[in-house]
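Hi support team,

I'm filing this because I wasn't sure whether my run with iron/sulfur cluster finished correctly. The job status page said complete, but I'd like someone to confirm that the output block is well-formed before I use it downstream. Pasting the exact inputs I used:
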Amino acid sequence: MEKIKVIEIFSSIEGEGSLIGYPVTFIRLEGCNLRCVWCDTKYSYDTTDYMELTLDEILYTIRNYKNKKVCITGGEPLFNEGFDILLETLLKEEFFVIVETNGTLFRESIENLYTVYNNQIHIVCSPKPFSDYKVDSKLKNYISEIKLIVDEFLTEDIVKNFLSFPVILQPEGNKKRFFQKALDIQKLILEKYQQEVRVIPQIHKIFDLK
Ligand code: SF4
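And here is everything the job wrote out:
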């Protein structure tokens, strides 16, 4: 039976993005193709400290949590060989599946499953400065929201490129100076392009949740 490399599975509330506050079970897969300097989940790659779980073992754990929403995260979940079968299984089990991706990769399984399960898939794409904010051209067709980390690299010009999607600006590490920068960019985007972007901090970090 196929086994999937999993760093951790836990229940919490969604602490980021447009689904903030919902109860969610997180499945953190092993591995990432990027090495962002401010990554807050460095323990998910360059490690042998992962579990190899069958789909049945994963399902048993997440059913116990009772949450309707499951987030496949990482690391970079699309970099993990188990992603396709995990996504398909969760959708068939009628979970609402959030996928957190850095946007650089694509999986045909997303295209195939989307035709049947589009109401159950929510793809959060967070392009990174360390990949020049690259987003795979096929993935673009399936993105539900763009989450941009506001740090020293983000500029209004970069945000402008994503205005065809719902955009969320997330201050890096909830730092005050980046919160102010996010508000400034938000104002500029509204003035110049008459478009609204949202500024949302990471609430799980404010309340010391996982
Ligand atoms: S893409 Fe995400 S998980 Fe990978 S290094 Fe960057 S912040 Fe960390």
